[in-house]
Amino acid sequence: MKGVVILSGGMDSTTLLYDVVKQGYETYAVSFDYNQKHKRELDGAKATCEKLGLEHKVLDLGVLNQVAPSALTRDDWDIPEGHYADENMKQTVVPNRNMVMLSLATAYAIGKEAKHLFYGAHAGDHDIYPDCRKEFVNSLKNTIKLADWNEVELKAPYLDIDKGDIAIKGKELGVDYSLTWTCYKGKKDACGKCGSCVERLEAFDKAGIKDVIKYERD
């Protein structure tokens, strides 16, 4: 039984990767370089796959920077600070990013003869990212099944739980979160102020575990 996991290098998709491996899948990971400011997350994805002994594919999606303006990719656009629920966090949306990623990941899964494609969207993403909502995922499930003679099933097992629940699951799975990266600013240390950092810190607090990466405030 083969499965492909879309792996950003952040804590959600990394937890999902561990989860899928534990379930007994022959697991493959695919990541995307879309000129994101926090590109160092790809280093984390690579390190995690090396630790788990998994094949890791990185695909170039630099074209998104040309057609889908976002604070995550444009040098002249600062990363907003605050909570994910804040209106200014919509600046971090990369329009249609997940549609493009899921489409390419489906092609990769077909090439690997994998019947299952795993995607780490969770309940905490729903407010800010349209392409992480149930309606989007459920619609795309049907489209992906129809995309080829070799059917691929899209699975998003964390859609109904938040990042804190994912951290709790990661604690049970023994996820090495020191290899993950979340901060959107992508500096040497995490800023602790962007929406992504704030949500990560809340998640670790809910799970009752200490975040092992360094923050600028430390």
Would you mind describing this structure in some detail?
With 218 residues, the protein is an alpha/beta fold. The chain has one domain: HUPs (Rossmann fold, 3-Layer(aba) Sandwich). It contains 7 helices and 5 strands; from the N terminus they run βαβαβααβαβαα. Helix 5 links the parallel strand 4 and strand 5. Helix 1 packs across helix 6 and helix 6 crosses helix 7. The protein is globular. The mean pLDDT is 89.
Structural class label:
alpha/beta
In the predicted model, the low-confidence regions spanning at least 5 consecutive residues are: none
- CATH uppermost class: Alpha Beta
Q: Which geometry do the CA atoms define?
A: globular
Please state roughly what percent of the residues sit in beta strands, choosing from under 5%, 5-15%, 15-25%, 25-35%, 35-45% or over 45%: 5-15%
- Indicate the mean pLDDT: 89
- What oligomeric assembly is this protein in? single chain
CATH structural fold name:
Rossmann fold
Number of domains: 1
What is the overall number of helices?
A: 7
SSE order: EHEHEHHEHEHH
Distance between the termini: 44 Å
Helix content: 25-40%
Adjacency order of strands in the biggest sheet: 3-2-1-4-5
Which architecture per CATH?
3-Layer(aba) Sandwich
